[in-house]
Amino acid sequence: MKHASTLLVAAAVVTACAPGDAEHGQGARTGSGQGVERLRVQVEQELPHDETAFTQGLEFSGDTLYEGTGRNGQSKLTAGPAGGPPERSVSLPEEFFGEGITVTDSGVWQLTWTSGVAIERDPDTLAERRRVSYDGEGWGLCDQDDRLVMSDGSATLTFRDPGTFEPQGSIDVTEAGQPVENLNELECVGGDVYANVWQTEDIVRIDPGSGRVTARIDASGLLDEGEVTSPEAVLNGIAAYPGSDRFLITGKLWPKMFRVAFVPAD
After folding, report:
1. For a designed S-S bond to 45, which of 53, 150, 183, 259 qualifies (C-beta 3.0 to 4.6 A apart)?
2. Does the keyword Transferase belong to this entry (predicted)?
3. What are the chain's domains?
C-alpha cells in the first residue's frame, strides 16, 4: 500500500463493506460450499475522483464518504459526498504517512504507515482527539462489530479493541493452504473482511474466524491504459454502500471511482 513500486500495474479496483451489514456479506455468495468463489466486478456507475489523492482508506458512514490519503507532507482525511468535493478536510503532520481508516460508532481511526501511531478523530469535525501507539506497520483498517481488524502488509490480520486500540489476537490468511501476503486496504461487511491485495487487481473475501479466503474478485480493466499515470496508481480503496450489496472502489492517483456489484466470474 505504500512504497513506490517498480512494477507498473494496470490499475484496477476493489471494494469492501461497511460494518454490520449482513446483506453485503451474503449477497456475493453463489453457493460454492467450501471452495473459493471466483467473482468479478460489474460497473454500474463512474464517479469523479481526485487524481492527486494517494488513496489509503475509503469508507461510508451514511451518505458521507471518508477518504484517507498518504505520502509524507500530503496525507489527509476528507469527508463529503461520493464524487463531489470534500466538505471537511484535515492534514496530517508532515512526519506522518497516512494509511487506512475506519469509522466506528464514536469516531474515526486513521493509521500511519511506519510511525506506529493511530489517530482517533471526531467524525463530524475531523479534529484529532488522541494518539495511540502500536507495533509494526499500519496498512488497512475496518470496524467489525465489537472489534477493529487491521492489516500490516503481511498475511496476518490483527484484531484490536475499538476503544483502546489494544491487540486482541490475530489470524493468518490462507488460500488453498498458502498464505496470502500483501493484504492492504480492508472493509468489514457482516462477518466477512474484504481486502485489496497490493499490486494486484484482486480483492479477496476472508472469513476472519478461520482466516480462509472464501472468494477472489477480479477487478481488472477499470481504467484505460492512458489513465494510469504512475507505477503507484494501483487499486486501493473499498467502501460498501450502506443498506445495499454495492461497493465503491478506486485506486491511488485514479481519476475515477466506480460503483460496482460483485457477480460470478462466468
Report:
1. 259
2. yes
3. 22-250 (2.120.10.30)
